[in-house]
Amino acid sequence: MAQESMPSFGEQDDTIWSSVKSFVWETAKVIVISLAIIIPVRYYVIQPFYVKGASMEPSYYDHEYLIIDELSYHVRDPRHGEVVVFRPPNDPRQFYIKRVIGVPGERVKITGGSVFRYTSEHPDGEQLDEPYLSEGTVTLGEVDVQLKDNQYFVLGDHRGASLDSRVFGTIARGEIVGRTWIRGWPLNRITVFSAAAP
Q1: Residue 55 is a catalytic residue
Q2: pLDDT tops 80 at residue 151
Q3: What is the domain partition of the chain in residue ranges?
Q4: What gap in Å lies between CA 57 and CA 37, rounded to an integer?
Q5: Any catalytic annotation for residue 52?
Q6: Residue 10: φ, ψ to 5°
Q7: Among the options 5, 21, 55, 114, which is catalytic?
Q8: I need a labelling partner for 13 at 20 to 30 A (CA). Which of 29, 100, 127, 150 fits?
Q9: Of the residues 59, 98, 109, 162, which is catalytic?
Q10: Out of 2.60.40.1190, 3.90.1530.30, 3.80.30.20, 2.10.109.10, which CATH number does the structure's domain 44-192 have?
Q11: DSSP H/E element including 29
């Protein structure tokens, strides 16, 4: 009667070591491939953002969790009315969230509690219709600025509690990280924000 030969301890060790090496190699490949996908997405496509403060109420409230679309601004420029996340010129370590009011080449004027924009379509100026503001909102300050190439004028929706272009001036195109895309928290306010019309 034939007997099966049992592997020696040395052969068992080689088999175990080979299995371990195979497992480590497969795990390393999965990690590398995952990082190759996740890192570009995280730094060039989308980014999480946590709202702090009341400067964008009633559109965005304190402690809301947002996903920022970074990809769109790699192929086009920010548009009127879009809410953007950017690094302010007075403190580039921070991130602010504000609404785009003026784009390069335009003139923005704040006077008498209202905002006026001067464009090629409205060379004599037009008072902005801002339905996203709370009823009775007054835009304090006296500002008159001509935007140069690469300059944007931004304001918070809660004009009485917002540190914005009225204080730190215009922001540069390169300081803008992206636009708000998804509100993921709280659950009862989940929203997907569409891009502003061109």
Answers
A1: yes
A2: yes
A3: 44-192
A4: 35
A5: no
A6: -65, -40
A7: 55
A8: 29
A9: 98
A10: 2.10.109.10
A11: helix 9-40
